[in-house]
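Predict the holo structure. Ligand: zinc ion.
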Amino acid sequence: MSHIYVWTLTLMLVLGSQFGYSDEPREATLIYAGKALLEAGKPPQENVSILVVGEQIQQIIPGFVEAGKLTGFDKITNLDLRNEFVLPGLIDAHVHLLMLYKGDRTVETEGQYALNGAYNAKLTLDAGFTTVRDLGAPGSSIFALRDAINGGRIAGPRILAAGAFIAVTGGHGDDTGYNEALWHERASGGVCDGVIECRKAVRRQIKRSADVIKITATGGGGKPQGGPDAEPEFYEDEFVAAVETAHRLEKKVAVHAHGTKGIQLALNAGVDSVEHGTFLNKEIIALFKRKGTYLVPTLSVRDNLRADIDEMPAYIQERARYIVEITPELMGDAHRKGVKFALGSDAGVVPHGNNARELEWLVDIGMTPQEALQAATLNGAELLGLKDKIGKIAVGMSADIIAVAGDPLANISAIRNIALVMKSGKVYRQP
Ligand SMILES: [Zn+2]
C-alpha cells in the first residue's frame, strides 16, 4: 500500500467521524451505582452515574441521570447497580496463570499450559481481577494468552507477563532432581550464570516480549536455599547485571526473595518489588522505606502451610510455623512503618479465582479495608506502571469496574460477592 493511499484513507476516516459520516453506531453504557468507591482511600459516594464509552470512562455524574438526557448516542445500555457496591477492577501483582493449583509440572505440556492458562484467566476475571502480573511461566504460552486476551479472543484479565524466571543453574525456577538426560527438557528459559549470561537472559525474555522481568534471588520457601539465613542464589555482580539490563530496557523488575540476605540484595540493587519478602526484620523494613520499594507479601500461601504443616518433613515444620505465626506480624509492622504494599496472591501456588483471599489477609495483618483495597488497586497500578490507565474510577481511565453485594469497607469478605465485572468497557459478568 502506498503512503499516499494510507494518508488519504486516514484523512477520510478522521473527517468521516468528525462530521458524523461514520456508520458505527455510537454506543454507551450507563452504570447506576448505589454506592461507589471511585478511588480507594477516599470516602465512598452514594448514587452516582458512570458513563462508559468504548473502553473508557467518559463521565461521572452525581445522581441517577436519565439515559434520554445524554445526547450523541444511538444506543445506551443501562446497568442497574443501585443495590450494589461499585469499585475499580482489582489488580493481582503476583500470579502464575499457567500453573494449575496442585498440578504436576513434570507431566504438563506446553499445550496443556496454554489451555489451563485460559481456564485460570477466566476464573481470575470472574473474581473481579481485571489486571494481573504473571510472574513466571514456562515456554511462550503466557505471551500467547496475553495477546489473545488483548485481541478479545479469550476472556481474561489484562496480563503483564514475565515469561521465564531469571534464575541461576539449579536455582529457584530451574527444576532439579532429574536424570541429567532430562535437564535440557526441564530447564527454565531464563537460566544464567555470570554477568554476561544474566544480561543475555534478561534481553532474551524481553525479545520474547516480556512486560516485566522476574528474578529469583533465593530458593523456594520449602527449600534449604529459601531459609531465613540462606545466602542468595546469585552473586551480587550477576544479580545487579540482570537488574540493570532490565531497567536499561525500561522493564520493571520483580524479585522472589525469602531469606534476609536475598531481600537485602534485591533492595540494594534497586528492584521495583520484592515478592514474598518472608524473613524481613527491622533493618529490612527500614531499607524498604529508604528505597521506596514495593512489598508483595503473598500472604495467602500461609493457608497452604497451615493446612499441610503436619505432613511436612520435620526440618521444614519449624520454618513453616514461623512463617504462619510470626511473619504476618512483621508484615503488619512493615505496613505501619510505611512500606508500600501491592496485592499479590501467588495464584497457581494457591487456587486461581480465590485471589480476593489476599485482601482478607491484608486486613488480618492490620490494614483497614480501605488500605487493603488501595494495595489491590492504586498501588498495583503504580507498581505495574499503569497508574494513568487503571486503579481508579475516573474520567479518561480504562473502564475496569466491578460491583459486589454488601459493603467491603464494613467487611472485606464482601469483595468475594462479585455481581459485575467490566474490563475495558466490556461486561464479562453481570447481575
Ligand atoms: Zn510466585
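Residues 20 and 26 are 10 Å apart (CA to CA). The longest strand covers residues 75-88.
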